[in-house]
Amino acid sequence: MWAKTITGNFANVIHGLNKNHLTDMVIHRSKRMILDTFGVGLLGTSTEVCQKVKQYSKIYSSDISSTIWGHFDFRLPPLYAAFVNGVAVHSMDFDDTWHPATHPSGAVLPAVMALSEAFPQKKKISGLDLLLAFNVGIEVQGRLLRFSSEARNIPKRFHPPTVVGTMGSAAACAKLLALNQMKCKNTLAIAASYAGAPLANAATQTKPLHIGNAAKHGLEAACLASQGLQGNNQILDMESGIGAFYTDYNPQTLPNLQSYPWLLDQQDVAIKRFPAHLGTHWVADAASSVRRKLVENSDISLILDKIEKVIVKVPEVKYVNRPSPNSEHEARHSFQFVACSALLDGSMSIQSFASESIHRPALQELLCKTQLVHPSDNKPSFESLYCEVTVVLWDGNAISDRCNTFYGHWRKPLTKQDLEKKFQFNASEVLPAEAIEGIIETVYNLEKVEDCSVLNMFLSGQSARVFPEKLHFTHSNS
Amino acid sequence: MGAAQFRQVFLQPLQSNWSSQFPPPQGRWCSHLQCKGDAHREGTDLVCRRVFKLLSGTDSYSDPFCRAAARGDFFSVSHSNDDILSCVYKWISDSPALVVARSAPEETVTSSFASFIHAVRPEHLSKIVRHRSKRMILDSIGVGLVGSTTHVFDIALKYCLELYSSVAVSNVYGKPGMKLSPTLAAFTNGVATHSMDFDDTWHPATHPSGAVLPALLAASQMLPPNSKPNGLDFLLAFNVGLEVQGRLMHFSTEAHNIPKRFHPPSVVGTMGSAAATAKLLSLSMTQCTHALGIAASLAGAPMANAATQAKPLHIGNATRLGFEAALLAARGMEANPFILDDISGCSGFSAFYSIYQPRPLSTPSEHHEFLLEKQDIAFKRFPAHLGMHWVVDAALSVRNLFINYAGSFSPSLIRTIVLKIPVSKYINRPFPNSEHEARHSFQFNACTALLDGEVGLSSFTESSIHRQELRELLHKVVVEHPEDNVANFDKMYGEVAVLLKSGDVLTGKCDTFYGHWRKPLSRESLLKKFRSNASHVLPEEKVETIISMVDNLENLSDSSHLACSL
Q1: Mean pLDDT of A67-88
Q2: Residue A84 has pLDDT above 80, yes or no
Q3: Do the Cβ atoms of B566 and B173 come closer than 8 Å?
Q4: Are A434 and A415 in contact (CB under 8 A)?
Q5: The pLDDT of residue A102
Q6: What angle do CA A225, A228, A233 make, to 5 degrees?
Q7: Which of A239, A331, A401, B247 could form a disulfide with A289 if both were Cys (CB 3.0 to 4.6 A apart)?
Q8: CATH code that applies to domain A6-266
Q9: In terms of CA atoms, which chain A residue is nearest residue B357?
Q10: Quick count: other Cβ atoms within 10 Å of Cβ B281?
């Protein structure tokens, strides 16, 4: 199998080359290169740019450290805390999705939270500072997504969080660091040099890394800019800047700051109910109601044999079209898998993606009967896509249902209760109840929180009882 | 775009109602200029005349429209991508009369974003925005908390814990005694390598060594004493990193020419570093596949950051992030196993190219022909973009002709300097303002060579860049792009013609500069370059030790000794 693909073939050669393959000529030439590179590098240590990165890299041998969510026992340097927490947020593809498509929060929140702990002792970051920085990060992502009509639809080339997420994280961190206008510009320029990961790594373990890296690299860009590092000051304006990631790039300036029109005001996010690609949420809702019609109160296993085929009408999205997913990450990116799971179980949950759920025979059997259809009016946009699931029985009967807007979509947002329920369930995997309640209360009152370090304490699993003085709001009207 | 078209496209729409075209910053700039107009009339006129000459090709400066356009309109269109335009922009910003213009904010999309980030305040947050964003924050935290129970999280965490807790084991170039964690040491040393654009260049164009070597050095120090790679292991890993870069460069015909969209070392360099470190760490074949896949997700930086301090970061990050990819793969992280293959609808490595034709590498049997065998590297003699080396050699021969002609080099005899160079926007900079811009300017390097008879380290200092004689010479430069001069390091040439006021013309042409792969540096020249570079930070004794260690690399028992001696 390996040698049949270019990638496998490259891996094969990298792995297979040995010292005997080196010729005298190659050795001779490469030694010249090594020596020259040493000299050039040694000389380069005296340059201004090198001073700045050395200064920057030293941050990580200092005592500054940030919270790892759910871990009381250890901390990491801010950059890697942002990375690890970012990976955690996207590890199950359970985080929010905006329109045009990206996962906005995961790229920003871990970065600003980690950065909030990296300031010198005396400096307190208020809840409002945090909210503002967060929203700057979200806003920048939304605006950048509007620079290309390509970006309106589900992507094909670059995974959006790696492009706009890196920029958003950088903007949010620049804001939290209160950088001046010139340094904000340099932050964006530097961040662009870290942006962009190909979509092919969707449905692999490397996709969660995309969010972790967006958070991490945006933070790094802001820190480097604050050290005085300079980049191109028209990075958003040029085809060879952020335009490099798009084929139809058309940048626009931002509105005036007086009564600033936030994109989040106009366009809410979708919050997922189960950990899978957003597109599968339409499928789950349609399939669940087909199941209700199909079995009413009886057991689905009794009628499985009666099913001839399952037709799922969805837009054409190549990376979510997976007839027989093999791993958890592939299952989260499979229209077919979610349709069959919801038909079998009536709903989707974290458990649906466990290895034993993926590989159970009933599901595998149903997957074999499933086919995707891509109606021409079903466009790959989270604003307009729909899903229709039809179960055709051997007796000729067909039962179908359609979902235009799933529960959790921005047109049909989760209630406060359901959002809290989701949070409590998620957090209870790793945090004690007191810390969970502490986080809910702190976030709800965020603009009144004087020192948001309390949030990091809860996130590490400590409870408010240990630090009653930390849970302090400027107004006590809540 | 020719001058006439330029005028049509950019200036005519502004002619009808140009005052209403100006967003506030330009408006301010214009009125500022008008106020200062009297005081600076002479200087302003000078600028207008230059601009007009550029647009019309004549010296008859009479068109009032051009005068108006030259005074103000360029800033409102300054984010366009046109060569002439940037030339005009530089021309204007270079003028002492218009210093006011330089300090005025430019209304670019980028600056509007920077202003927004900088200036937005908590009061700007609306109720809905606060409400929605709090929901997002809560949800994001919860999702992250539950995510901290996943396998992929465990890998990421273990990786960070192992590498970043307090493991500072890797040397930093020129800083004996200072240690950093391995990937940050790779980053720092990578930045050092490309900080002056003094590192080697291959064909098709990339800087291969800087992306590979720092990662290997840092990795060799990271490995435990019982599994230290020897010199030959090191040499092999280095060549694997080179080979992968070279092969990837052949996947796209686009890559044969000097790039426009992504900076090659940030694309193929990251992959090369992943391959090299995967080799040094003796990863399994599956892990090698995933290392390439992960590295692709860390690759790619836009060209626009060329000629800025962010460009050296590209090499630093290529070497560091490729290394990170291999370390993650070593810990079991998985990526798309078809990352190099052309998959439509869901791009892998092809995302970085518009033309992409992957080709397999021949599986090594007894023999493997490395690309380095067929295609040697170019070493630079002075710290600037490779393209500059042709122009400098051509300019030096013109200078010799000049001295034979007039007894000495006297700029006052020169009317025009014509540079015949390939079209490559990011190295065509009429008036560079910083060290990094100067390293990417045909004009600057040609004039420096003419003026000083050499280009060296000191040519790129602030004071050299801004000296009056050089600026005067730069004003005499005209650039031409002959059709047969293509932006390709295997084919390009540099030609410098000096038109004298007497009417005589002195011409020099360079097809292959000394240091190019067709005319490689002698061992003596290479050692001279190394000694000069290294002696800036290391004592002579250490410099000689490094030379002999590299000379005998295949016999070195522990390659980390090399890293320790830096």
Answers
A1: 87
A2: yes
A3: yes
A4: no
A5: 94
A6: 65
A7: A401
A8: 1.10.4100.10
A9: A6
A10: 21
Interchain contact, B122 vs A224, CB within 8 Å: no
Chain B residue with CA closest to A173: the answer is B117
User: What tokens does B68 get?
Assistant: 């108006």
Looking up tokens 């390996």, which residue turns up? A2
Angle A406-A409-A412 from CA coordinates, rounded to 5°:
80
Do residues B128 and A410 lie in contact, with contact meaning Cβ atoms separated by under 8 Å? no
Coil, strand or helix: which one is A388?
Answer: strand
Cβ contact (<8 Å) for B293 and A271? Answer: no
Residue B21 is predicted with a pLDDT of: 36
pTM for the model stands at 0.82
Indicate yes or no: CB of A33 within 8 angstroms of CB of B377: yes
Q: Which residues contact B279 (CB under 8 A, 6 or more apart)?
A: A14, A15, A17, B236, B237, B240, B241, B288
Contact assessment for residue B430 and residue B546, using Cβ atoms and an 8 Å cutoff: no
Query: Using CA atoms, how far apart are residues A315 and A313, in angstroms rounded to an integer?
Result: 7
Residue B277 and residue B190: Cα distance in Å, rounded? 14
Asked if the Cβ–Cβ distance from A206 to B294 is below 8 Å, we say: yes
Of B193, B285, B297, the CB nearest to A201: B297
Q: B468 to chain A nearest CA, in Å?
A: 24
Q: Which candidate, A13, A205, A277, places its Cα nearest to that of B293?
A: A205
Instruction: Please tell me which of the candidates B285, B336, B554 has its beta carbon nearest to residue A11.
Output: B285
Q: In a mutagenesis test of the A interface, which of B141, B191, B207 is the best target, namely the one with the most A β-carbons within 10 Å?
A: B141
B358 in Cβ contact with A211 (< 8 Å): no
Q: What is the amino acid identity at position A21?
A: H
CB contact (8 A) between residue B288 and residue A47 = no
How far apart CA B553 and CA A28 sit, in angstroms, is 10
Q: Would you state the pLDDT for residue B276?
A: 95
Query: Under an 8 A CB cutoff, do A318 and B346 touch?
Result: yes
What residues in A contact B435, CB-CB < 8 Å? 48
Radius of gyration of chain A (CA): 25
Taking domain A279-403, whether its CATH number is 3.30.1330.120 is answered by: yes
**Is the Cα torsion angle A277, A279, A280, A281 positive or negative in sign?**
positive
pLDDT tens per residue, range A179-238: 998 899 999 999 999 999 999 998 888 999 999 999 999 999 998 898 888 899 889 999
Please report, in angstroms and rounded to a whole number, the separation of the first and last CA atoms in chain B.
49
Parse chain A into domains and list their residue ranges.
6-266, 279-403
Residues A386-444 have pLDDT tens digits of 999 999 999 999 999 999 999 999 999 999 999 999 999 999 888 899 999 999 999 99
Q: Do A36 and B316 touch (CB under 8 A)?
A: no
From CA A278, how far away is CA A23, in angstroms rounded? Answer: 53
Query: CB–CB of B182/A63 below 8 Å?
Result: no
**CB distance A136–B214 less than 8 Å?**
no
Q: How far is B56 from chain A (nearest CA, A)?
A: 27
* Residue linked to tokens 């649906």: A352
Nearest CA-CA distance, residue A443 and chain B, Å: 6
CA-nearest residue to A430 within chain B is B145
CB atoms within 10 A of CB A136: 27
ipTM, two decimals, is 0.85
Topology alike, domains A6-266 and A279-403? no
> Quick one: closest CA in B to A431, which residue?
B145
Q: Are strands A398-403 and B179-180 parallel, antiparallel or unpaired?
A: unpaired
